[in-house]
Amino acid sequence: MTMIRTYAATEASKPLEVFEYDPGPLPDDYVEIDVMACGLCHSDLSMIDNEWGFSRYPLVGGHEVVGRVSAVGSQVKHLKQGQIVGGGWISASCQTCAPCVGGSQHHCHRAGPTIIGRHGGFADKVRVQALWAFPLPDGLDAKSAGPLFCGGITVFTPFIDYGILPTDRVAVIGIGGLGHLALQFAKAWGCEVTAFTSSMDKTNELKKLGAHHVVNSRDKDAIKALRGNFDMVISTVNVNLPWRNYLSALAPRGRLVQVGMITEPMPIPSMGLVMGQKRVGGSDTGSPSTMKKMLEFCARHNIAPQVEYFKMPDINDAIARLKSGKARYRIVLTNE
To answer: d(Cα 52, Cα 125) in Å, to the nearest integer?
Structure first.
């Protein structure tokens, strides 16, 4: 019997504890991964603390996994033992529903999120359907790449899905774990990039990440002065903002893309949508095809998360660090 050793939440808002489980036989279309490193995401905290109301315990978080393939199912032909791969929020899909057949497997009607109804990567091993295990391209650092598989794909997908052009103007609201990656993507995409932040002391740092302009997100007059300017605004924050002002800052047919999980309704004025045919949408994660594009794009343009490292046994210290809001900009737990 092979047991997998993890760090699990046994109830909401309590420190994580060592927890072992028997994974059973490896399904034919799955791979088993020896976890080298795993990002710690705000979504992990939301699940651990049951902020979304559907957590089940014991809960093993961790959905930004990078590791080495240690076993492959009998049907898996494109991966082999020893290969370094990564995995994100989704770890299984049915392959037969309309979204799967249409290439949107991340919207599968029976998708298997990595940390909902199964155990994630705060562990020595994790199992995922082989479709959702992505080989790392040459040039990407395995130790730091984990956050690309959730935070990265979430802010990369809008560039693909919404047809963003190199001539477009893109703004990012909130420069943290998601925002610092969005700035890098937008700059490498060729866009004119604006960062909206409440921490103006980060100005020089944000410009190094890719921002051409840095605007105080608490200065309503500064936002109003940008009326009609942006083709896309990506909001990474998880609280409501003066959306009327940001809609005004969109160019005609511009799009406000929300990627932060706001737990209360967003007050969007209809006039702000009607005038200029503007749109509000979201981005959750990405298809396997888009994930592969993102990884290749990161390798080509030397895009990488900025991370702080903790040893896996120090996971409760890492959680406290993330909750403090002081992490710059992602936290990664390592088994090495």
So the answer is: 26
CA–CA gap between residue 71 and residue 82 (Å, rounded): 9
Q: Write the CA distances from 104 to 14, 155, 175, 202, 288, integer angstroms.
A: 36, 16, 28, 37, 8
Q: Are residues 92 and 197 in the same domain?
A: no
Examine the domain organization and report whether 55 and 16 are in the same domain: yes
Give the range of the structural domain holding residue 180, as residue numbers without chain letter. 152-282
Distances (CA, A) of 120 to 38, 117, 137: 9, 10, 23
At 246-295, the pLDDT tens digits run 999 999 999 999 999 998 999 999 999 999 999 999 999 999 999 999 99
CATH number of the domain enclosing 259? 3.40.50.720
- pTM for this entry: 0.96
For residue 336, what pLDDT is reported?
Answer: 78
User: Do 304 and 227 belong together in one domain?
Assistant: no
Total domains present in the chain = 2
